[in-house]
Amino acid sequence: METSTALLLLLLSIAAYFLWFIFISRSLRGPRVWPLLGSLPGLIENCDRMHDWIADNLRACGGTYQTCTCPIPFLARKQGLVTVTCDPKNLEHILKTRFDNYPKGPTWQAAFHDLLGEGIFNSDGDTWLFQRKTAALEFTTRTLRQAMGRWVNRAIKLRFCPILKTAQVESKTVDLQDLLLRLTFDNICGLAFGKDPQTLSPGLPENRFASAFDGATEATLQRFILPRVIWKMKKWLRLGQEVILSQSLQHVDRYLFDVIETRKLELQQNLGTGGKGNPHDDLLSRFMKKKESYSDTFLQHVALNFILAGRDTSSVALSWFFWLLTMNPKVEEKILREICTVLMETRGDDTSKWLEDPLVFDEVDRLVYLKAALSETLRLYPSVPQDSKHVVKDDVLPDGTFVPAGSAITYSIYAVGRMEWTWGEDCMEFRPERWLSPDEKSYEAKDQFKYVSFNAGPRICLGKDLAYLQMKSIASAVLLRHRLTLAPGHRVEQKMSLTLFMKKGLMVNVHHRDLMAFTSTS
């Protein structure tokens, strides 16, 4: 009797669950949701094209859909509900109008806390606001831009160009994505804490700090794949990626501790000489020179936050840029003609002088079409393809979608740039001209909520201008000296991570650039 009663209760529970599930699933728009598994089967099936799959779903649903990752009663409405959108009006609502209602949230902060602490990219509220205001003051100074220019141009002239020249002479295929990652890593470390890790040296040596930073970043990203309770259990038991994370962070901490201690001594010695010593113009030194007393841990997190933000984003954008140029020779030709026109006016018609040094500030600033091509690249292939926020209070988005407190909302930056109703029928075409004035003489910025590659609202990227400076400097240096072709048989694929890496790198052959064709009519 007891067995039959238990069986009856089980059957009733199953029936009640399926009735509840049918009710819940019918209220959702978007990819199919399965009992108990939620939207996981769809994610697994489309794991190799996840961003395009999300864009397809958004296109079919008018720009916003809701799905459930945890179809379990009492959990589905909040912890399991995810709203996905690419509607610019919704983005403005989330990132600006109701900014305080959509913080990073506990899920994101818990995953990144071991690596980034309460740094600017992993904090909310007053903690974030204080760092934002402090950093904003530094990013508006011309000296920081000049410092970036020095680091970038030195690395281009002494390391990047010689490596490409060697590859050209020896007819060797190179992984351009790897070279760009090393170049931007050296640059951002120099700008962040004034020390060059030299990962882009001849032979491409392994650097322990760079390797530890990569290991910590990859292990941190793994936490987003697993439920929070599981990765926390793995951390407690010291299993899998959590061991790598712990070991990597130990090395990163030791490295930055030594940097900070050395810098303290240098700054003290500089004060003792009346400021005649090496002043240092990196971000770390700037924070240390302020009247406020910051802990070593805080200073470490300042450096790590800016390295994470400034390294992968620019290198990944440039990788997609050079790949797009291999398929769009007319765009490449227009960029080269622009560069040659500027150099004819600034350095004369002797092309050998053009190659002596990378372009300086004033020359880079005049490259309007190049900036348009880089912006067009980031529209189609944003370095950070999507981002998520936590919903603090019940809210209704401008398109009428209700989002309950405790749920998550994801905005697909990748999809924003691929919607016809936002960018027109040619939204899938690589057309830099859409960023130019009718006479094509000046760059025209777009609405920040339609072009979210540098974020938008109060958290818009402080280093946007520095990123363009670095990308334009690198791109012009490469294009003036070399013509790149995709290595035969190499397939360019997206890597599914928080940053839009190329899964198998960007394997290219490096050829000599004949500038005569671009100077005759410049």
Radius of gyration: 25 Å
- Assembly level: single chain
> How many strands in all?
9
Count of the separate structural domains: 2
| Main structural class | alpha+beta
Task: Put the structure in a nutshell.
This protein has 522 residues and is of the alpha+beta class.
Describe the structure.
The chain is an alpha+beta fold and 522 residues long. The chain folds into 2 domains: 1-97 and 389-416, no CATH class; 120-382 and 417-519, Cytochrome P450 (Cytochrome p450), CATH 1.10.630. Helices cover 56% and strands 7% of the residues. It has 21 helices and 9 strands. It has helices spanning 2-26, 40-45, 50-60, 88-97, 105-116, 125-139, 142-169, 176-193, 208-222, 228-237, 241-272, 283-288, 296-327, 329-347, 351-354, 361-365, 368-380, 413-416, 420-423, 464-481, 516-519, and strands spanning 64-68, 81-85, 174-175, 386-390, 395-396, 402-403, 408-412, 482-486, 507-512. The strands form 3 sheets. Strands 1-2-7-4 form a 4-stranded mixed beta sheet. Strands 3-9-8 form a 3-stranded antiparallel beta sheet. The longest helix is centred in the middle third of the chain and has 32 residues, at 241-272.
Q: Can you lay out the helices and strands and say which pair or pack?
A:
Layout: H1 2-26, H2 40-45, H3 50-60, E1 64-68, E2 81-85, H4 88-97, H5 105-116, H6 125-139, H7 142-169, E3 174-175, H8 176-193, H9 208-222, H10 228-237, H11 241-272, H12 283-288, H13 296-327, H14 329-347, H15 351-354, H16 361-365, H17 368-380, E4 386-390, E5 395-396, E6 402-403, E7 408-412, H18 413-416, H19 420-423, H20 464-481, E8 482-486, E9 507-512, H21 516-519
Parallel strand pairs: 2-7
Antiparallel strand pairs: 1-2, 3-9, 4-7, 5-6, 8-9
Helix pairs in contact: 5-9, 7-8, 7-20, 8-13, 9-11, 11-13, 13-17, 13-20, 14-17
